From TrEMBL:
Protein name as catalogued: SAM-dependent methyltransferase
Example of a GO MF term: sterol 24-C-methyltransferase activity
Species name: Clostridium manihotivorum
Pfam family, one: Methyltransf_11
Family matches, as Gene3D superfamilies: Vaccinia Virus protein VP39
Length: 209
């Protein structure tokens, strides 16, 4: 297996020593992307928030600073990521402001209409059935709540060769902005707004239930 394939597989489900290195790198390398992604998202201080694919827990930590009277849940299907995210957020967990758990986007273990905000940073490429998974996200989102997607890659002409290589090696589903909007609309999301940084291939999508 090539080095890039190993890295992409670890991005999908970080595990072990290499996974730890990848997660620590993502916490740093995704900081600017996440900052840009979150700047347009309304986060009230009493919000209940779910971060899907929480990885090393940095985004959970940053959102918890803004939702300081609410609670932020971080979900990842990697047991190791759950452990690392707990380590990073241990003080907030002790204060009952954060909870980290193992779970999958196919079956989010919460009742309907639970969350004010759901975030997915650098993760939807790896979701097994994005349309069905968006439906599951919508189920646990409150009416009027926000779903935010922040991606470092979207299908575009300028980055097509690179993205196609990543998609093939890592079994990733890299949607265009229009494809993403269509799927979200089909499952019932409204007010879909997509912002792009074309020279970096960044995408931010904010929509509501």
């Amino acid at each position: 297996m090539s080095e890039i394939a190993k890295r992409l597989n670890q991005c999908r489900k970080p595990t072990g020593d290499l996974g730890k290195i990848i997660v620590e790198d993502m916490n740093k390398s995704h900081f600017n992307l996440t900052s840009w992604g979150l700047e347009k998202i309304n986060i009230e201080n009493d919000f209940l928030v779910l971060d899907i694919g929480c990885g090393g827990g940095k985004t959970v930590n940053r959102i918890a600073e803004r939702a300081d009277k609410g609670k932020v849940y971080g979900m990842d299907y990697s047991d190791d990521c759950v452990k690392w995210s707990i380590d990073l957020n241990i003080n907030l967990i002790k204060e009952n402001k954060v909870e980290i758990f193992q779970g999958t986007v196919e079956n989010i273990p919460f009742e309907a209409e639970k969350f004010d905000l759901i975030t997915a940073v650098e993760t939807i490429y790896f979701w097994p059935d994005v349309k069905a998974n968006f439906s599951e996200v919508r189920r646990v989102l409150k009416t009027g709540g926000t779903f935010a997607i922040i991606n470092e890659m979207y299908d575009s002409e300028a980055f097509r060769d690179r993205n196609n290589e990543f998609a093939a090696i890592g079994n990733m589903n890299i949607l265009s902005s229009e494809e993403l909007k269509i799927v979200l609309s089909e499952v019932g999301f409204n007010d879909i707004e997509i912002d792009l940084v074309e020279e970096k291939n960044w995408l931010r999508c904010v929509c509501s239930k």
